[in-house]
Every structure is written in structure tokens, then in C-alpha cells.
Design brief:
It is a single chain. The protein is mainly β. It has a domain of about 110 residues: Thrombin, subunit H (Beta Barrel), CATH 2.40.10. Strands 25-26-27-28-31 form a five-stranded antiparallel sheet, with no helix packed on it. The protein has a four-stranded antiparallel sheet with strand order 4-3-2-29, with no helix packed on it.
Length: about 375
């Protein structure tokens, strides 16, 4: 049988490829919050097979480990309930009535839990003594408080307000608002990074870099339409890891240099990539919001393997349950391969751009940019 020269060459190269040491599939569980299907899917990280599916009452979106790592807290915003789960087994430990827990996060000192209520325009501050929660302050913060970040000294919490295009700083000791700043249409994800606040501007295509001392926007880093959430990658040689920014409209993840915020690479991940978690091998587990799937992404090669999990998966978390050891493996055989997309900014500094007037929907349907000047929201019952 005659074979084209290219096919013969490819076969010889594959056969001659040496075995390489790659990390074994990690021992752990992956928690996927199916916000449109009222359940929490628990996967075996090594096999990607379902371990259990935990039913919930209404609509789970975000999750957080307690400071000691012994309990996983999942907010069921539609049911006004907080779920407490054993992260090592997936066993339900307890349920507690709480007002509309959409997003949640602990201050760095582990003493305060902040919960945002997207539907009720409120932010709750809870004191945490290591075993139970006690509501200390409730703030009315219109419109649509969403994501949370903290100052390293645990003095301030920063909240994005999708409806007013602001971020607001809250003093955790007093429960009072310290300052507000307009940052762009529909701000979503926010993190503290090297003394700055990085904010995903979901109604546009960039990350706003905010100086919290001067309350000024210092630059805008273009990443892609529907810039949503930001995730620090694993540390490298004791230094901060790369930054990963999900863009749900352009369906990609932009990788930023942590020192310069220049674009390192762009990863194509279809279906509205939303939340990200990393396993010990450095791979990313990403919820594909519009497709009802999750993607397992190699951040170095751009190889993507995807599988169905449920409707509108949102929050996701990898929880290790054992050691990871390297083994000799042959060439990888991905479920689906997607090449890296060259970034037009990779060779230079981040571009300063004006804010767009387009909008992005926050539900499970893939949004389309509306006409200029029009902000597109979905009914609060669907968020």
C-alpha cells in the first residue's frame, strides 16, 4: 500500500519519540456546581469519572474552603442555604439557612466570611470562629454585588457591582464603605495582585488595573470580549504564577505575565469559559458555561479535553486526596486538540484601550453584544 511521504515521516517521528516523564493523573476530587441543574457533580480527578452527584434545592454558583480546609462551603443562592461538605469525600455534613449566598470568600486572616447577594443587592459580613458563622453586618449595595477580593492585611474587602459599573471598598472592622470607583461596564471578577486590583470588565474586553491607594485606574489590559474572572496560576520557583483571565464571549483564556501583565499566550476554550481550578500537575479544569461541559486544559500546549457535566456549570474546585508521582508515559492522546492562538500583544506591553459600551449576559445562554449604549441584563430570577 502506497502512503504519502508526509504520512510516512509523521509515523516514523511518532515511533521514534522517546518516552517522557509526565505526572500521573492526580489523586483528588473535582467539584462542579451545575447552577442550571440543581446539583453538585463530584468527579474522580484521575479517571474523570463521576463519584457522586449531590442534589441541591435550587441554584449553586460559588464555593470556598473554610480556612482550615476541613469543610467545603457551597452557596445555594436560590434556596437561601449554605451547604457544608467534607471536601475529601463529598459527604454532606450540614446545611444552614443563609440569605442568598451567591459569591463567598474568607478574608486572609480567616476571621471574616463575605457573602454577596446578586439578586438582593446586599453584602453580608459574617464572623467565623472556626466552627460557626455569626452575621455581624449587612450592607445594602445596589446594584448587583458580584465578586470579592481582599487586601492582604484583611482590612478591606472589594466588591464588584455589575449594575452600577463600580467597585466598592468595605472596611471589615466597621462594615462601612470606604470608597467607590467606576471601572467599566459590568465589572465581574476581581483579585488583589502585587498591590493592585485587577478587575474583569465583562461588558467590554479588558482588565482594569486599579491602584487602591489612589483609587485610580492605571491601565487597561485587553484580553477579549466578555472579560470575566481572573485566576492566579501555581507559583513558579517561589514567584507568583501566571495569571489566567476567562473571556466568555470570545471563548478564550488569556494568559498574562504576573510582573508586566503582558499577554503570554491565548488558549481557545469553547463554550464560554467561566471558572478555573488547578490540579497539582498544573492542568486547568474549566467550566464551559454555555455547553454544559468542563474542559481539562494543558496550559503549556493548549490541548483541551472536554466532557459533559450538567446544565450551566459555574464554580469548580480541585481537592487533592493523595500524593502525585511522576511516571513514564508515551505520547499524549487528547480527546480534542486546540492549538494556541498567537496574541497580537505578545511581543509588547498591554494596550491602553477605551471602555466598550457593549454588554454581556450573565446567564447560561451565549450572549451577543447589544447595540452601543444598551446594557444587556437577564432577569434576576435567571442569574
Amino acid at each position: 500500500m502506497w502512503l504519502p511521504r508526509a504520512a510516512v515521516l509523521a509515523t516514523l517521528l511518532l515511533a521514534a519519540a522517546p518516552l517522557r516523564a509526565e505526572p500521573a493523573p492526580p489523586n483528588g476530587l473535582v467539584y462542579v456546581l451545575n447552577s442550571g441543574e440543581a446539583n453538585i457533580l463530584v468527579l474522580d480527578a484521575a479517571t474523570r469519572e463521576e463519584v457522586r452527584r449531590i442534589p441541591v434545592l435550587r441554584e449553586v454558583h460559588h464555593l470556598s474552603l473554610t480556612p482550615d480546609g476541613k469543610r467545603l462551603m457551597v452557596g445555594d443562592s436560590g434556596a437561601n442555604e449554605m451547604l457544608f461538605i467534607d471536601p475529601k469525600t463529598g459527604e454532606m455534613l450540614s446545611r444552614e439557612a443563609l440569605s442568598n449566598p451567591y459569591h463567598l470568600g474568607f478574608s486572609p486572616d480567616g476571621k471574616t466570611l463575605v457573602i454577596t447577594s446578586l439578586r438582593r443587592d446586599q453584602v453580608d459580613l459574617y464572623a467565623w470562629d472556626g466552627s460557626k458563622l455569626a452575621l455581624s453586618t449587612r450592607l445594602r449595595l445596589p446594584d448587583m454585588p458580584s465578586h470579592i477580593a481582599f487586601s492582604p492585611d484583611s482590612k478591606l474587602a472589594f466588591i464588584t457591582l455589575q449594575g452600577t459599573n463600580d467597585i466598592t471598598a468595605i472596611e471589615l472592622a466597621t462594615g462601612k464603605t470606604a470608597w467607590n470607583l467606576k471601572v467599566g461596564p459590568q465589572p465581574a471578577g476581581i483579585i488583589w495582585h502585587e498591590g493592585k486590583l485587577l478587575v474583569g470588565i465583562m461588558g467590554s474586553d479588558h482588565v482594569a488595573v486599579v491602584n487602591p491607594d489612589t483609587q485610580q485606574i492605571e491601565r487597561r489590559v485587553k484580553v477579549g470580549r466578555g472579560a470575566h474572572a481572573l485566576f492566579p496560576g501555581p507559583a513558579r520557583d517561589g514567584k507568583p504564577g501566571l495569571l489566567y483571565v476567562t473571556s466568555r464571549v470570545d471563548s478564550r483564556i488569556t494568559v498574562l505575565d504576573p510582573a508586566t501583565l503582558d499577554t503570554v499566550r491565548v488558549l481557545d476554550v469553547p463554550g464560554g469559559p467561566d471558572c478555573v481550578t488547578f490540579d497539582p500537575t498544573g492542568r486547568m479544569w474549566v467550566t464551559q458555561r454555555w455547553l454544559g461541559r468542563i474542559a481539562l486544559v494543558d496550559p503549556e500546549t493548549g490541548v483541551v479535553a472536554s466532557q459533559h457535566v450538567g446544565r450551566s456549570p459555574h464554580g469548580i474546585l480541585f481537592e487533592p486526596t493523595g500524593a502525585v508521582t511522576p511516571v513514564a508515559m508515551g505520547p499524549a492522546l487528547p480527546v480534542a486538540a486546540m492549538p494556541l492562538v498567537p496574541s497580537p500583544q505578545a511581543a509588547g506591553p498591554a494596550e491602553a484601550i477605551p471602555a466598550s459600551t457593549g454588554g454581556v449576559a450573565e446567564d447560561e445562554r451565549p450572549p451577543t453584544p447589544p447595540p452601543a449604549g444598551r446594557r444587556l441584563f437577564t432577569p434576576r430570577s435567571q442569574r
